[in-house]
Design brief:
heterodimer; B: alpha+beta; 2 helices; 6 strands
C-alpha cells in the first residue's frame, strides 16, 4: 500500500495538470527504509513529449546525489499519461529500474477528474496497490480500493 | 588505479549488495571489463549486444554524463568517481514504437 499526504498527492496532480498535454514526471523522496514519501521533487521531462518521458540525466544525477547525502531514497516515481489510463504501459514496465519504488501514474485525459494509481514494478511484473491519502493533521484517513476502483479526485 | 563506482539498487545483485565498489581502467570500457571480471554479468547490463552503451542506463564520470564525453572511450584517472543510474523513463508511447526507437 502507498500512504501519501494529501498535500503531496495534490502537488503531483497540480504538476501533471500544469504540464498537460505533455507528460509530467518526478520523484517523492523519503528517509531510506521508511516507505514515507515526504519530499516532492518535480523533474523536467527531457523529452517534452505527450507520449514519452525521461528524466534529464544531469538533473537526475543532482537529485539522486542529494537523496544519497540526506540518506533518502526515491519512495515514489511518478509520471502522467495525458490521453490514456493511469496504468503502466509496456514501455513503463520494460524500463522500470527502481524495484523499491512505488510507481504512481496520474491520468489527465479527463479535464475534470484525475486518476491517481500506484503500482509496484519488479522484474517486469506489475502489481497495483491501494493508495491511502492521509490529511496532514491525521484526523481523517481515507482508504481507497484496488483495481478496478480508481482514486478519483475532483479538481 | 582505483576508481570508485556507485552501483544502483537494481544492479546490486551483481555486487553482493554493495552500493559502491572499486575498479580499474584508463577508459570507461576498460573499467567495465575490469568490473565484469569481479562481478560476472554486470557489463552485460550496461552494454548492448552491438557494443554500445545501453540507451536507458546513465553513466557519469564525476559530474559528467559520459554520453557527452566520449561514451565508452571516456578517459579515467585515479580517484575518479563513476556513478551508474538507471534512466527514469517511460510513457504511454506504444511498445512497437519503443522497439523501433531502441534499435535506432
Amino acid at each position: 500500500m502507498l500512504t501519501i499526504d494529501r498535500a503531496i498527492a495534490d502537488a503531483i496532480i497540480a504538476h501533471a495538470r500544469r504540464d498537460h498535454p505533455d507528460e509530467a514526471c518526478g520523484v517523492v523522496a523519503g528517509p531510506a527504509g521508511s516507505d514515507k514519501p515526504l519530499r516532492h521533487i518535480p523533474m523536467t521531462n527531457a523529452e517534452r513529449s505527450t507520449t514519452f518521458y525521461r528524466f534529464d540525466s544531469m538533473e537526475q544525477l543532482k537529485v539522486w546525489r542529494q537523496m544519497d547525502d540526506l540518506d533518502e531514497e526515491p519512495v515514489i516515481i511518478y509520471h502522467s499519461h495525458t490521453a490514456t489510463e493511469a496504468y503502466p504501459s509496456r514501455t513503463d514496465i520494460s524500463l522500470a529500474g527502481e524495484p523499491g519504488a512505488h510507481y504512481v501514474l496520474v491520468s489527465t485525459r479527463e479535464p475534470d477528474t484525475t486518476e491517481f494509481r500506484s503500482f509496484r514494478i519488479v522484474d517486469q511484473q506489475v502489481t497495483e496497490e491501494p493508495v491511502q491519502v492521509v490529511d496532514s493533521d491525521a484526523v481523517q484517513t481515507y482508504m481507497f480500493g484496488q483495481t478496478p476502483t480508481t482514486v478519483v479526485y475532483d479538481c | 588505479m582505483a576508481i570508485e563506482v556507485r552501483i544502483p539498487t537494481i544492479l546490486r545483485s551483481y555486487t553482493g549488495g554493495a552500493k559502491a565498489v572499486e575498479g580499474a581502467g584508463t577508459t570507461l570500457s576498460e573499467l567495465l571489463s575490469n568490473l565484469d571480471g569481479q562481478y560476472n554479468g554486470l557489463r552485460g547490463r550496461l552494454i548492448t549486444e552491438e557494443g554500445g552503451l545501453h540507451r536507458f542506463v546513465n553513466i557519469y564520470v564525476n559530474d559528467e554524463d559520459v554520453r557527452f564525453t566520449g561514451a565508452l572511450e571516456t578517459k579515467l584517472a585515479d580517484g575518479d568517481s563513476v556513478t551508474i543510474l538507471p534512466a527514469v523513463a517511460g510513457g504511454a508511447f506504444g511498445f512497437a514504437a519503443m522497439a523501433a526507437l531502441a534499435s535506432a
